Amino acid sequence: MNSATHILKPSLRSSFPAPGRARAVDLELPLHALDAQRPLRIALVTETYPPEVNGVALSVARLVEGLRGRGHHVHLVRPRQPEHDATRPADDAATETLVAGLPIPRYPELRLGLPATGRLLKLWRQQQPDLVHIATEGPLGWAAQRAADRLGMPVISEFRTNFHAYSQHYGLAWLRPLIEGYLRRFHNRCALTMVPSEAQRQRLVALGFERLLVVARGVDTERFNPRWRSQALRQQWGAEPDTPVLLSVGRLAAEKNLNLLIKAYEGLLQQNPQARLVLVGHGPERERLQQACPQAIFSGQKTGMELAEHYASADLFGFPSLTETFGNVVPEAMASGLPVVAFDEAAAALLLRDGAGLLLNPGDEEGFCQAVASLGTHPAQRHSMARRALCTVADHGWERIVSEVEAQYRQHLQALIP
């Protein structure tokens, strides 16, 4: 990590305004900015946040919670969520700025923040943050980048979603080069872009992305834990104590490759007709998937303790997606004591190499189905992998991840001080 930071330092200044303008900003930064104990003022911009349920929203919320827990002043900028924010306490304005938003096409439960450059300029001129952290690259993120550039403030971004890869699943493959170009320009204007895995970093480097640093995602090992296993819930599924339950958690959408999961389940049924498939989540593909696999159990969207119980009450986790930047559900399943069957991508590639599950070459659909059938019919192998999974995720708690992000903030602020 130190060597990567050392390489970054010479190019940082070229990402910000000309020297004369930068000096004016430097005067506003106190000399004790180098003090490793001084709380930082962070503007964190995101276009998705709880109660929206998705991997980006939940991991951003954990980062905000962790940074505030370490004493930092985090001001959140996000789209207004009409139902949730109608009853928002007035004093939340001290920690949040809400902007207008629109529903995302085909994702109506999520909102896209509209550009708000002028409003952000006014906000940050009144109380300038030490840095701006942009978690998403939509119109609001773009506006935040413009405002930060005009004020000469450092910007750190994250690459969280493979939007360019999603396009092929919605008949928009022709848009992929345009989306890639936008994302490359966006992130290359930032001082640093954090990516969740080395494999993702290498793919982005090949596409011309610059100044990338791997910072993994965390998992809440208290919330996701085998002790929440519920026999009552298993009985609702029609599962006896020795019935293998294959679980999937995530959006029911084309990019999640759930046709393959159903195919794998059908193979498992041939080995054990009592096996169960439980899908947690909702999305545009639900009706079609129910028609394709009427015997599957569609539990809908779950959060909190209900989600934890669903994880812990299953026996193995199937993750056929090939479009993830990370895949938070993989460490969540592992922390819940589940072996995982997945392709050698994203979080699975990072976490499953020690025998905590079965990794398949990307696109090896036959191998994926065979792996599900094998684990589904060999409980001793499942239990062995579950133990390894628990050991692996023990080192991926959010406290360590937040500490790494904080260290990057301080190193990049220090690089900007003459």
Automatic annotation (TrEMBL):
<feature type="domain" description="Glycosyl transferase family 1">
    <location>
        <begin position="232"/>
        <end position="389"/>
    </location>
</feature>
<dbReference type="InterPro" id="IPR050194">
    <property type="entry name" value="Glycosyltransferase_grp1"/>
</dbReference>
<feature type="domain" description="Glycosyltransferase subfamily 4-like N-terminal">
    <location>
        <begin position="53"/>
        <end position="223"/>
    </location>
</feature>
<dbReference type="InterPro" id="IPR001296">
    <property type="entry name" value="Glyco_trans_1"/>
</dbReference>
<keyword id="KW-0808">Transferase</keyword>
<dbReference type="Pfam" id="PF13439">
    <property type="entry name" value="Glyco_transf_4"/>
</dbReference>
<protein>
    <submittedName>
        <fullName>Glycosyltransferase involved in cell wall biosynthesis</fullName>
    </submittedName>
</protein>
<dbReference type="InterPro" id="IPR028098">
    <property type="entry name" value="Glyco_trans_4-like_N"/>
</dbReference>
<dbReference type="Pfam" id="PF00534">
    <property type="entry name" value="Glycos_transf_1"/>
</dbReference>
<dbReference type="GO" id="GO:0016757">
    <property type="term" value="F:glycosyltransferase activity"/>
</dbReference>
